[in-house]
From TrEMBL:
InterPro entries found in the cross-reference section: UVSSA
Domain of life: Eukaryota
The name this protein goes by in its record: UV-stimulated scaffold protein A
Coiled coil: none
Length: 83
């Protein structure tokens, strides 16, 4: 790899390969999950969007409108009005 670098004059990264390996700091409790990292999961991001106050209001409005429409359609038939 180094001879190719010498011939072309380009750095292909051979200086990084096989360098000194440094030991990282050992975790005190390796099996515990990091609470700060787990707060930004896909579930929490979706919860912020789905359970937003304006979103809940909009969904409730659409559902009540659908219920009202069904009630108007079947108001004279008791069985269908409640389902």
């Amino acid at each position: 790899m180094r001879d190719i670098e010498a011939a072309t004059g380009e750095d292909l990264g051979s200086s990084r390969v096989g360098g000194k390996k440094r030991k990282g700091k050992k975790k005190k409790y390796p099996n515990l999950s990091d609470l700060k990292q787990s707060s930004d999961t896909s579930r929490s991001r979706l919860e912020r969007k789905v359970f937003n106050k304006s979103t809940m209001r909009r969904v409730a409005q659409v559902l009540s409108k659908a219920d009202r429409r069904k009630h108007d359609k079947f108001s004279n038939q008791f069985n269908y009005a409640l389902n």
